[in-house]
Amino acid sequence: VGTHDTTGTLTSGWEFVRSRAGNETGHDLKIAAYANDIAPPTTAGIGYPQASTKPLIKILADIYEIPDEQEDRTVNIIIQATNLDNFSFSDEGGNAIGVITDTFFDTSWFHCDVWNATFDTCYFWNDTDEQVSPDDSFWCCDTILNGRLDTDYVSISNGTLTVLAGGLCGDIDNGGSINILDVVYLINFLYKGGPAPELPGMADCNGDGNLNILDGSYLISYLYKGGPAPVC
Question: What is the pTM assigned to this prediction?
Answer without folding.
Answer: 0.57
